[in-house]
Write a structure and sequence with these properties.
about 375 residues; alpha+beta; six-stranded mixed beta sheet; five-stranded antiparallel beta sheet; 10 helices; 20 strands; binds adenosine-5'-triphosphate; ABC_transporter-like_CS
Length: about 375
Amino acid sequence: MTDHSPGGGVLAIDGLRREFGAFVALRKLDLRVSAGEFVALLGPSGCGKTTALNLVAGLIEPTAGTITLDGHRIERLPSEKRGIGMVFQNYALFPHMSVADNLGFGLRMRRRPKHERVERVSRALALVRLTEHAHKYPGQLSGGQQQRVAIARAVVVEPRLVLMDEPLSNLDAKLRLDMRTEIRLLHQQLGLTTIYVTHDQTEALSLADRLVVLKDGAVQQIGTPSDVYEQPANAFVAAFMGYRNVLEGDLRAGDLHTGSLALRTRPGTTGKSGRAVALIRPDDLRLLPDDAAPAPNAIPVRVRVCEYLGREFAIEAVGPGEQVLHGRAARPLTPGERAVASVDPERVLVFPATEGAAVSAPELELVAQGEQG
Ligand SMILES: Nc1ncnc2c1ncn2[C@@H]1O[C@H](COP(=O)(O)OP(=O)(O)OP(=O)(O)O)[C@@H](O)[C@H]1O
C-alpha cells in the first residue's frame, strides 16, 4: 500500500449485507466505483447509508459480502489498514493539536520524513485556504473552518478512497452552499475516489457523478444525477427527488382518472392500465390566472397559500376532490382566488399504485423540506 497513488482507487462492493440482531440494516449492496469517481449514498434517515459507509470504513464488519479496493479484499481488514480517509459531520478533530498538527498526524503515523510532512501539510492548508490559521487550535475556528481542516486532514495522506458522512450537516445554510462548491472543487483538483453520504437530494445531485438511492436497507436506483432526477426508477425515488404532487387513480389509454379529474400522462404509458400513481414536480406544475389561455392538463384549483421564492411564487392549491397541489406561479396569487394548474403530460410520471404505497407521509415531508434548500 502506498500513500502516493495519484487520484483514487477502484472499489468493488458485492452482496454487502449487515444485520443488527434480527434487524437488516443493509440488505444487499452491489456497487462499482471507478478511480476518481464521486458517488453519493442518498436516502431518508434510517435507510442504511451510514451502515454502508461504516462497512467500507471498517468501523463495523459485514454479515455477508465483499469489499475490494484496488484488487485487494478489505472487508475484514482493520480500519487503519484500509488506506481510507474519513470526514464526519462532527469534524472529529484533535482539540489539543494545532490545525497544522491535526493535518500532519496521519503523515506522522505513516512515518513520512519531516520535510515531506511540512510540504504536504502546507499544500493541503493552501488547498482549503487555511494557511494563516495553521497555528490555531480547532476551538478557535468557525464550524466551516473546522470542517475544512477535517477535509484537509482526510486528503493530505492522499488516500485511495475518501468517505464523507454528512460533512455539511452542522453548518448553516449559506456555509453549506459554499462548502459544497469547495468539496466539488477539491474533488476536481485531486480526483480522489469519494463516497459521500447525505439525506439531502440537492447536495447529492450537485456533488456526485453517480447516486445510490437507498430505502429500508435496499437499493432503489443507481444512476447519474440526471438519470435519477429525470427518470426515477419508482415512486419512492420520484417522491424523494422532489416529485411532491402524488395523485392516485386508474390509468386508461394514457390518462390517469382520479375520480374527480383526468390527467394526461407521459407518452409511453398509453399501453398500460390499472391502479397507478402520477407524480409531478412543483416546478412543472404552473399556476395560471383563471382567465388564462387554454393550457395542457388544465386543473381548476383554489389557491390556499402563496409564498415568495425570489424569482417566482410557490403556490399550494386545492383541486377537484380536495386534491392538494403544489406548483409555481410567475405572479403572486391571492389565497382564496380561483386559478388553473397546468402540467405538460411529458412531466407527469406514472408508476403502479403498489409502488405508490411506498411513498409515506414522513418521506414526503422530508422532500418538502429539502425543496426549500
Ligand atoms: N448498532 C446498531 N444496532 C442496532 N441497529 C442499528 C445499529 N446501527 C444502525 N442500526 C439501525 O440500522 C438502520 C440503518 O441505520 P443507518 O445509521 O445506516 O441509517 P442512515 O441512513 O445513515 O440514517 P441517518 O441519516 O439517520 O444517519 C437504522 O434503522 C438504525 O436504527
